[in-house]
């Protein structure tokens, strides 16, 4: 069991729990509770920053495209984007399928949750700034452009399920060697590992905070592996990251998705 913190819907404070990454139960105040009996809320409070092209297979798959205009070479610094607050979603909630779209990409990502203000940290001490780790599904409408901000494809309401909890940093012995699996309707559709990162966790934190401050509660995604699987309406999606947990959601019609802040 690992120590973690989760947020229950309607309760403002995070709740301390013990979790098993491969099970669907949590221990709260000594009592074992099934995950399906908990109404989870999004456990993070800050901004979610995504990282493009940080898996070796992604860059290899682009081949000569990265040598064409406008950049003419592979990136020499992290390529970042934002998943704004309107995208935040929770464990067990539906992921909305927009009208006129038939499939969505499921972007399995390890989320680094920042614990204290990080400015120009060095690689050797970077993990000292980490509070813990969570699972993020960086959902997007399939698109080809990697150079222009894909706001319409990646920043739609509900396009960023997060959770179900934040596992304490001390409970994760090596964040650079965590198997990642994506199941759609219980069928394994993707398998990778954070050992295939171009910039491992500490290096990524050092490179990003060289030019941008990360604040407590912010989440930095390490990136999405190549060949992200696609899901259609009605599909059940499960992302598993060893040592972290399981994130489950179902693809629903956008018309049935209740936007936050609406009745």
Secondary structure topology:
Elements: E1 2-8, E2 15-19, E3 25-28, E4 31-34, E5 40-41, E6 48-52, H1 56-62, E7 79-83, E8 88-90, E9 94-97, E10 104-105, E11 108-114, E12 130-137, H2 151-154, E13 160-168, E14 179-184, E15 187-193, H3 201-209, E16 219-221, E17 230-231, E18 236-241, E19 245-253
Characterization of this structure:
This protein has 263 residues and is mainly β. Helix content is 8%, strand content 37%. The chain has helices at residues 56-62, 151-154, 201-209, and strands spanning 2-8, 15-19, 25-28, 31-34, 40-41, 48-52, 79-83, 88-90, 94-97, 104-105, 108-114, 130-137, 160-168, 179-184, 187-193, 219-221, 230-231, 236-241, 245-253. Strands 1, 2, 3, 4, 5, 6, 7, 8, 11, 12, 13 and 16 form a twelve-stranded mixed β-sheet that branches. The chain is globular. 41% of the residues are buried. The model has no long low-confidence stretch (mean pLDDT 90).
Q: How many strands in all?
A: 19
Low-pLDDT runs of 5+ residues are none
Report the major sheet: 12 strands, mixed
Strand content: 35-45%
Global shape: globular
Distance between the termini: 38 Å
Mean pLDDT: 90
Rg computed from alpha carbons, rounded to a whole number of angstroms: 18 Å
Relevant terms:
263 residues; twelve-stranded mixed β-sheet; globular
Short structural description:
This protein has 263 residues and is mainly beta. It has helices at residues 56-62, 151-154, 201-209; strands at residues 2-8, 15-19, 25-28, 31-34, 40-41, 48-52, 79-83, 88-90, 94-97, 104-105, 108-114, 130-137, 160-168, 179-184, 187-193, 219-221, 230-231, 236-241, 245-253.
């Amino acid at each position: 069991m690992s120590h973690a913190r989760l947020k229950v819907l309607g309760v403002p404070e995070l709740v301390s729990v013990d979790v098993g990454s491969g099970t669907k139960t949590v221990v709260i105040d000594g009592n074992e509770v099934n995950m399906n009996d908990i109404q989870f809320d999004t456990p993070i409070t800050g901004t979610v920053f995504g990282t493009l092209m940080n898996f070796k297979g992604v860059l290899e798959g682009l081949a000569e495209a990265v040598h064409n205009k406008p950049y003419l070479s592979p990136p020499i610094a992290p390529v970042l984007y934002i998943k704004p607050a309107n995208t935040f979603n929770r464990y067990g909630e539906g992921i909305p399928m927009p009208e006129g779209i038939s499939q969505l990409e499921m972007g399995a990502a390890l989320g680094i949750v920042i614990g204290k203000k990080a400015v120009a940290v060095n690689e050797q001490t970077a993990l000292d700034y980490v509070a813990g780790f969570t699972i993020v599904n960086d959902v997007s409408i399939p698109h080809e452009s990697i150079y222009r901000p894909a706001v319409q494809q990646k920043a739609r309401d509900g396009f960023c399920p997060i959770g179900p909890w934040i596992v304490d940093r001390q409970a994760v012995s090596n964040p650079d060697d965590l198997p990642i699996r994506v199941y759609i309707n219980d069928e394994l559709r993707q398998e990778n590992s954070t050992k295939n990162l171009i910039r491992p966790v500490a290096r990524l934190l050092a490179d990003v905070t060289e030019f941008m401050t990360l604040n407590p509660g912010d989440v930095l995604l390490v990136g999405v592996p190549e060949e992200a699987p696609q899901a259609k309406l009605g599909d059940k999606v499960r992302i598993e990251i060893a040592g972290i947990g399981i994130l489950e959601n179902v693809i629903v019609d956008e018309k049935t998705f209740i936007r936050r802040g609406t009745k």
